Amino acid sequence: MSSGQIRVLIADDHPVVRQGIAVLLSVQDDMIVTGEAADGEEALRLAGELRPDVVLLDLKLPVLDGVEVLRRLPERSDRTRALVLTSAADKAQVALALQAGAAGFLFKDVDPDALVRAIRSVHDGHTLLAAEVTDVLAVRSGAASGLAALTGREREVLALLADGQSNREIARALRVAEKTVKTHVSSVLAKLGVADRTQAAVLAVRQGRG
């Protein structure tokens, strides 16, 4: 990012929604809208051409739905992080989106300022979930026993991961190499039986509430 701005691609099939978000982001000094897509196929094409930092992605897109876009996105632009911004979604849609690689999940009734903060957070490497999402996510039944199998250091990594910290930030906090953190994260995911760090973070939050 030579300009230092966060490059955002908006993917939504409603022109009014795209325009509203574009206006909101246009007044942010650290953001620029690089493109707008009205369907999933166009979103993937523009992601490959423009290589944005963040794509704001609706799940209910024509041609290709948002989950399929998430699955194919790394092939087009491995630098782009996806923040889902959608209307009400059921448990299955949420789980599929997160498994497919979404870095964040928000609903369209989010406060505009909160959306701007979310874009910055996802761009900085954090995972960001709406409160409603953590409530609907199903956690595998074997996850509790997996928590008991974690080492002390792995528990520290999980706690920091649940706090939304990136691997780099975790490495700095624990004073270890980032490569070491990646190894710990992989071990945590395997022991908990979850697909990605987002699901691990959700599990940690839920266990904390209990």
Structure description:
The chain has 210 residues and is of the alpha/beta class. It has 2 domains: 6-136, Rossmann fold, CATH 3.40.50; 143-209, Winged helix-like DNA-binding domain superfamily/Winged helix DNA-binding domain (Arc Repressor Mutant, subunit A), CATH 1.10.10. It has 11 helices and 6 strands. It has helices spanning 15-26, 40-50, 66-76, 91-99, 112-123, 131-136, 143-148, 152-162, 167-174, 178-192, 197-209, and strands at residues 6-11, 31-37, 54-57, 81-86, 104-107, 128-129. Strands 2-1-3-4-5-6 form a 6-stranded parallel sheet, sandwiched between helices. Helix 5 links the parallel strand 5 and strand 6. The radius of gyration is 17 Å and the shape is globular. The model has no long low-confidence stretch (mean pLDDT 86).
